[in-house]
Amino acid sequence: MQTYMPIGYKMVDGKIQIDKEKSKTVKRIFSEYLNGKSLLAIAKELSEKEVLNANNKTKWTHCGIGRILENTKYMGDEAYPELIDKVTFDNVQTKRNQKKNQLWRKANRKKSQSLFANACVIISITQ
């Protein structure tokens, strides 16, 4: 259960509405990610430009960017108006899964290469 209001929304007269200013930041995050920027690069740029996050602070983290990119509320539901269209959201999820799989394969390849890279094989024959 979500206990906070995602960035890009605000409460007005008991209804959740799009916050025009902060919604630009959310759209920018989705767009920049699809255009090849890393989560860390996006966070660093937003922090440097002193863009306010959901807590009205200027400190952004790659984890916070990741949470924004995976938040399904941005596609809209019974309470939240649509901020990001489904095609864009799905494209971001596909790209994130591809990156995750690439990193996982690289990490496993490094582990398997380094596991026996400097090992000597001793064969003992006993009769």
Descriptive report:
Pfam families: Recombinase (PF07508). This protein is mainly α and 127 residues long. It has a single domain (9-115), classed as Hect, E3 ligase catalytic domain fold (Alpha-Beta Complex), CATH 3.90.1750. 50% of the residues lie in helices and 6% in strands. The protein has 4 helices and 2 strands, in the order ββαααα. The protein has a two-stranded antiparallel ribbon with strand order 1-2. Strand 1 (9-12) and strand 2 (15-18) form a beta hairpin. Mean pLDDT is 86; it is low at 118-124.
First-to-last CA distance? 66 Å
Binned, the helix content reads: 40-55%
The ordered H/E elements are: EEHHHH
Rg (CA only):
21 Å
Shape: globular
CATH topology: Hect, E3 ligase catalytic domain fold
Indicate how many domains the architecture comprises: 1
Question: Could you say which structural class the secondary elements and strand pairing correspond to?
Answer: mainly alpha
CATH class: Alpha Beta
* CATH architectural arrangement: Alpha-Beta Complex
Main beta-sheet annotation:
2 strands, antiparallel
Q: Widest sheet: strand order? A: 1-2
What is the average of the pLDDT values? 86
**CATH level-four homologous superfamily name:** Putative Large Serine Recombinase, Chain B, Domain 2
Counted beta strands: 2
Helix segment count?
4
Low-confidence stretches: 118-124
- Percent in strands: 5-15%
Architecture blueprint of SSEs:
Elements: E1 9-12, E2 15-18, H1 20-34, H2 39-48, H3 62-70, H4 86-115
Antiparallel strand pairs: 1-2
Helix pairs in contact: 1-4, 2-3
